[in-house]
């Protein structure tokens, strides 16, 4: 039986230019996405920092469904509309849909496809595990404990969901977006593409994702916590409070490539 995890933050992009517009704006190759297929993508600012991260489902020849695990639909719709110019695209939030946890037998065979599910869509998460959700029009009671347990699994899988407090703060490499298939380095230009490509081919990114166990008070997204091995500040993406499933934890962006032993020795000498 499906468990309701919360409201779904959804946009529908439809029209003769919908696919071309999304391909030109987002960080993955959407021209190769056929109806029935899905993938992950991001929208960046001109400095190459991630404004939003989402799944993209090709629901028709001329339509896409965009799902943000964190973040609100209407602000994203309003920002995207500013770039339409003369493009024949309608960008509208999809109201009244929920995110439901689905058992493995109800999921698509792979993370690159979605399935019809009771008037909505079923898709796998990009975590290599048999986890997935249904996005559909529904009004089921939210299971708050199940939602927290689900988010804890997101943290364990290091899924770099972006919300309002962390939008526009990190380049894709710091969020490890290549790992979930949300970056293409051989497509045409999109906002921030030059910076992303430079980091990819020349290096220079020094940050990555870390799962950090925190104290009793859960830090807010966008605030900093000390990375336990180095003591250096890490920026919280999202977290879960302590519950029977485990302690309070956050997923954070931290400096990587630091030898914990060397960092500890340096702190001791200081």
Report on this structure:
This protein has two domains: 141 residues, Probable tRNA modification gtpase trme, domain 1 (Gyrase A, domain 2, 2-Layer Sandwich); 64 residues, no CATH class. The longest helix has 13 residues. The N and C termini lie far apart (56 Å). It has 270 residues and is an alpha+beta fold. A hairpin with a 2-residue loop joins strand 8 and strand 9. The strands form three sheets. Strands 1-7-10-9-8 form a five-stranded antiparallel beta sheet. A five-stranded antiparallel beta sheet has the order 3-4-5-2-6, covered by helices on one side. A four-stranded antiparallel beta sheet has the order 11-14-13-12.
Question: What is the gist of this entry?
Answer:
It is built from five helices and 14 strands. By secondary structure, it is of the alpha+beta class.
What is the fold's blueprint, element by element?
Layout: E1 3-7, E2 9-14, H1 18-25, E3 38-44, E4 50-60, E5 63-68, H2 73-81, E6 90-93, E7 97-102, E8 114-117, E9 120-124, E10 132-137, H3 144-156, H4 193-202, E11 207-213, E12 224-226, E13 233-240, E14 249-255, H5 260-269
Antiparallel strand pairs: 1-7, 2-5, 2-6, 3-4, 4-5, 7-10, 8-9, 9-10, 11-14, 12-13, 13-14
Q: Give the overall silhouette.
A: globular
- Tally of structural domains: 2
Structural class: alpha+beta
Biggest sheet record: 5 strands, antiparallel
Query: What are the low-pLDDT stretches, counting only 5+ consecutive residues below 50?
Result: 259-270
Global mean pLDDT: 93
Question: Features of this protein?
Answer:
globular; 5-stranded antiparallel beta sheet; 270 residues; disordered C terminus; Gyrase A, domain 2; alpha+beta
